[in-house]
Amino acid sequence: MTSSKAPLGVLLTGGMGTRLRPLTPTLPKSLVPLLNRPLVSYGLDLLAQMGLSELVVVVGGADPLTAQCALDNAPAGSTVTIAEQPTPKGSGDAVISVGDALDGRDVVVLAVDTVLRGADADLRAQLATWQASDCVAWLPLAVTDRPKEMGIAVVEHERVIALEEKPANPRSNLACVAVWMLRPLVIERLRTNPIINPKGESDLTATIAALLDEGASVGGAAFDGQWLDGGSLVGLLAAQTALLAELPAVAYSNGANSEGDDKNIVRSQLQGSVLLGANVQLTDCVLGPDVVVGEGAHLTGVRLQRALVAPGATVEGGEYHDVVITPSGEIASTV
Are 110 and 25 in contact (CB under 8 A)? Predict the structure, then answer.
């Protein structure tokens, strides 16, 4: 049965962010920018849009920055508190790091590098369906063309009948998108007898799979929206392109509305989808399409297409495409 309390939203921000290097580890994964907003803000917004007003952000013990950013980006009408996972011991351990706030609660868990576009209404519906069911867990799913690289669910009539991580012979193309809806029974299992993966980590999805194998009911359904991967450089640029398509052709965060209105844009051209943060300095540049430049970046003599420039970066000269540029100016190609 569902808890009498409203569900608790939990956002997991830990992890090494290895697929986002060289942006990480000097920049926590949760603060990696997407359209000049930190990933943590997208996660908080999605949980709030699902109707969850009590939110907990789990931060790593070596991360002094995410907590304040999460508090600063608390959605209107929600409360955000911080829990700490002192050492990285997997997703299951991160969840139970929330502590007593989990007791007797239905919980919706989201990984910070999962960005779901246009999915909030559908996820609200899935949450309601799950709460009305006898399922101990529910998994929103998305169609993938890389099933051998994902956690894959086999579903019949919104009931998961098989759940396997990176199957050699996939029986489905429905992937787990790192959103987990959990009853107190699952929380107790994570506390007392989680599945430990080959890395020695408490594995949330594997623990749900074990409960499924033991006869527990697990639900799931594909959501009506787009699954964007904010956890890799390739995925981050693809997410940027998808979200830029929803903005005006050229957008500014610093109040200017055309090249001629901004003294910081000198002999430079902006072509197609370009987003500039505050206090960006451009001299003799050609940017676009699909370029986002972070706050305080200085670019001189640069041509960019399909690029993310981190806040504070300085770049002089060169022509680049499909790149991520770090705050120190390091250029990482994604092709």
Answer: no
Dihedral pair phi/psi, residue 127, rounded to 5°? -60, -45
Measured CA to CA, the distance from residue 57 to residue 11 in angstroms comes to: 5
Q: What is the dihedral of CA 33, 38, 44, 45, to 10 degrees?
A: -60
Maximum C-alpha span of the chain: 67
Could you give the domains of the chain? 8-229 (3.90.550.10), 247-333 (2.160.10)
- The C-alpha angle with vertex 90 and arms to 29 and 209, in degrees rounded to 5, equals 120
* Omega before 38 within 30 of 0, i.e. cis: no
Please provide the DSSP assignment of 7-56 as one string: PEEEEE--S--GGGTTTTTTS-GGG-EETTEEHHHHHHHHHHHTT--EEE
**R_g of the chain computed on alpha carbons:** 21
3-state secondary structure of 204: helix
Structure confidence by residue, pLDDT tens digits, 295-318:
999 999 999 999 999 999 999 999
- CA of residue 127 relative to chain centroid, distance: 19
Packed helices 120-131 and 39-49: angle between N→C axes, nearest 10 degrees = 50
CA triplet 300, 303, 307: central angle to 5 degrees?
105
For residue 265, give both structure tokens: 């844009």
Query: Has residue 17 got a pLDDT over 50?
Result: yes
Per-residue pLDDT tens digits for 43-89: 999 999 999 999 999 999 888 899 999 999 999 999 999 999 999 89
State both tokens at 234: 């390739």
CA 218 – CA 201 distance, rounded (Å): 22
As given in the structure block, the two tokens for residue 66 are 């995410």
Q: What distance in Å separates the CA atoms of residue 166 and residue 323, rounded to the nearest whole number?
A: 28
